[in-house]
Specification:
Length: 474
C-alpha cells in the first residue's frame, strides 16, 4: 500500500531512502475532554468493548507499518499504560489547540516521511475504506501540486463541527470553526470530520503560520486557508455515510456512536449467518466471534474475548464475558464469566458461571446453580440450586438439588473431587477438602466431612459410611 505514496513526479526534489516509511500517522489525543465530565480520559472510555483510542490505533496500524505518533496531554499516564508500545508518544504540555498539538510531533517526524496523515482520537467510526480513499485522492492531488487533502461529509446536525467553505466554482477555500462562523456560514451542511493528509515537508514548514484564534487556540483547520492562499489546491473526498463521522465529545455522542457501531457489528454477524430476533437489543462487543446458525435472543450481551460456536441458542437476557462456548449449546437467562463450555452444554435459566468454570460436553446445569473454578466432566447433571466451587467432577455425575461444596474454611479455599458416575444426594454439604470416589453415593442431607471411597454410600450428619452391600440404588 505504501507504494501508492511514492513521491509524485512533480516533486523530484524529494529524496527518501528506501528504509524511510512513506507514511507517518499522528493521532491527536491531548484534549482535556471537559465535555465528558469524567475522571477518565475521553479516549479511554469504552465503545463496544474497546477503548476509543483503540479504534484510531487499529486504523493507523492498517494504513501504515510505521508506529503511529500519539499526542498526549494530562492524560498521558493512563493513556500510555493502556496503549503501551503500540504507539510512539509526544507530549503537549499546554492545551493550545489542535494545530499546537500537531506541532509537538514535528521534532520526532520532520524529515522522516513524505506524507503525514493526521486524525483526532475521538472519531472511532471512520472506516479503513474512507481512509484509503483519502490517501488515493491525496496521491492525485500531489501530482497537481497539492499539499493537503481531507475528508468531508454532509449532515444537517453539525454538532459543533467546522464548516467547509467553498468558492462559487466549488473549490475548498477554508474550514471555519463553528464559533467563528457568520450566520450564513452556520447554515453550511458540509462539515469537517478532522482527517487530513499532508505533504510532510509542507506541513512541518507551514505549521508556524497558524495564528492564535480569538479563543486562544492554534487551529489545525487554518492550514486549509493557508494552503489555498499559497495557490496550493486543497482537495476533499466526500464520505457519504455520515454515521462514520460521529465525533465523541459528550456522553450523548458516546451512546449514539455505540448504537451506530452496534448496528454495524450486528449487520456483519447477520450476514455471516447469525440470527437475531431483535438486533437493537443484542449487544456484541467488537472483539467477539460467533459461529453460523447461532440464534441470539433479545437481551444478549456478548463481551470481551468471548467466542460462541455454531448452532447455539443464547438468551434471552444473558451476559457472556470472556467465555468460550462450543457448538450446539443452549444458554438462557445466565451470566457467564471467564468460563468455557464444550459442545451441547445446556445452562440456565438463572445460572451463574464464574471464573474458571469448565463444563464438558453434554453437561446440564439448571436453574439457580453457580460454578466457580471447577471442571464438570462430560454428561454431569446439576439441575437445581447448587454451588460448585474449586471442584473437579468426573463423568456422568449427578449433583442433586441443593448440593454445596463448602470450599472456604474461613481462611483458605479447599478442593472437592468427585469421581465418575458418583451420585450426590439432595442437600449434601461437601466439606472440602474432600473426595467422593467413583460410583459413590451420598444420602439426602448428609454433611460429608471425610472422603467417601469408590462405590460406597455415606449418609447422615456428619456422614458415615454404610456397609458396602447397602450401596445399591434405592
Ligand atoms: C475539531 C476541529 C473541527 C472538526 C472536529 C471534528 C479544530 C480546530 N477543529 O473540533 O473543525 O469539525 O474536530 O471532530 O481542529 N486535541 C489535542 N490538543 C489540543 C486540543 C485538542 O490533542 O490542544 C485533540 C483532542 O484530544 C481531540 C482532537 O484533538 O482528540 C480534537 O479536539 P476537540 O477539542 O475535540 O476538537 P473539536 O472542537 O471537536
Ligand atoms: Ca472532537
Amino acid at each position: 500500500m505504501s507504494d501508492d505514496l511514492q513521491p509524485a513526479s512533480s516533486r523530484p526534489f524529494v529524496t527518501t531512502p528506501a528504509h524511510v516509511p512513506a507514511l507517518d500517522i499522528v493521532i491527536l489525543a491531548a484534549g482535556e475532554s471537559t465535555r465528558m465530565r469524567s475522571q477518565t480520559p475521553k479516549v479511554l472510555h469504552m465503545l463496544a468493548g474497546r477503548p476509543l483510542i483503540d479504534y484510531s490505533l487499529r486504523l493507523a496500524e492498517a494504513l501504515s507499518p510505521s508506529r503511529p505518533v500519539v499526542v498526549v496531554g494530562r492524560n498521558a499516564d493512563a493513556l500510555m499504560a493502556q496503549v503501551g508500545a503500540r504507539a510512539r508518544y509526544v507530549h503537549q504540555e499546554q492545551r493550545l489547540g489542535t494545530g499546537h498539538a500537531l506541532l509537538q510531533a514535528r521534532p520526532a517526524l520532520q524529515g522522516a516521511s513524505q506524507t503525514v496523515l493526521v486524525f483526532y482520537a475521538d472519531m472511532p467510526l471512520i472506516t479503513q475504506e474512507s481512509m484509503q480513499a483519502l490517501l488515493a485522492l491525496h496521491h492525485q492531488n500531489q501530482a497537481s501540486g497539492g499539499v493537503l487533502t481531507m475528508l468531508t461529509f454532509t449532515s444537517d446536525s453539525p454538532r459543533g463541527f467546522g464548516r467547509i467553505v467553498r468558492s462559487a466554482a466549488g473549490d475548498v477555500l477554508a474550514i471555519v470553526e463553528e464559533a467563528a462562523c457568520t450566520p450564513e456560514q452556520l447554515g453550511i451542511t458540509e462539515l469537517n470530520p478532522g482527517l487530513y493528509c499532508y505533504d510532510a515537508d509542507w506541513l512541518w514548514r507551514s505549521l508556524d503560520e497558524i495564528t492564535l484564534s480569538p479563543k486562544g487556540e492554534y487551529y489545525l483547520t487554518d492550514l486549509v486557508a493557508i494552503a489555498v492562499g499559497q495557490g496550493r489546491p486543497v482537495w476533499a473526498h466526500h464520505v457519504d455515510d455520515a454515521s462514520e463521522m460521529m465525533g465523541i465529545n459528550t456522553r450523548v455522542h458516546l451512546a449514539e456512536a455505540e448504537a451506530a457501531l452496534r448496528e454495524r457489528i450486528n449487520r456483519r454477524w447477520m450476514e455471516a449467518g447469525v440470527t437475531m430476533i431483535d438486533p437493537a437489543a443484542t449487544y456484541i462487543d467488537d472483539t467477539v466471534e460467533i459461529g453460523p446458525d447461532t440464534l441470539l435472543l433479545p437481551g444478549v450481551h456478548l463481551h470481551g474475548q468471548s467466542r460462541i460456536g455454531a448452532g447455539c441458542r443464547i438468551g434471552p437476557d444473558t451476559s457472556v464475558v470472556d467465555t468460550i462456548i462450543g457448538r450446539g449449546c443452549r444458554v438462557q437467562r445466565a451470566v457467564l464469566e471467564n468460563s468455557e463450555l464444550e459442545d451441547h452444554v445446556d445452562v440456565g435459566p438463572f445460572a451463574h458461571l464464574r471464573s474458571g468454570a469448565y463444563l464438558a460436553t453434554g453437561v446440564h446445569m439448571g436453574n439457580f446453580g453457580e460454578v466457580k473454578n471447577s471442571r464438570l466432566g462430560p454428561g454431569v447433571k446439576m439441575g437445581h440450586f447448587s454451588y460448585v466451587g474449586d471442584a473437579a467432577i468426573g463423568q456422568d455425575v449427578n449433583i442433586s438439588a441443593g448440593v454445596i461444596t463448602c470450599n472456604f474454611d474461613g481462611s483458605r479455599k479447599n478442593q472437592t473431587i468427585i469421581g465418575d458416575h458418583a451420585f450426590i444426594g439432595s442437600d449434601t454439604m461437601l466439606v472440602a477438602p474432600v473426595t467422593v470416589g467413583a460410583g459413590a453415593r451420598t444420602g439426602a442431607g448428609s454433611v460429608v466431612t471425610r472422603d467417601v471411597p469408590a462405590g460406597r454410600l455415606a449418609v447422615g450428619v456428619p456422614a458415615r459410611l454404610r456397609p458396602s452391600d447397602e450401596a445399591q440404588p434405592d
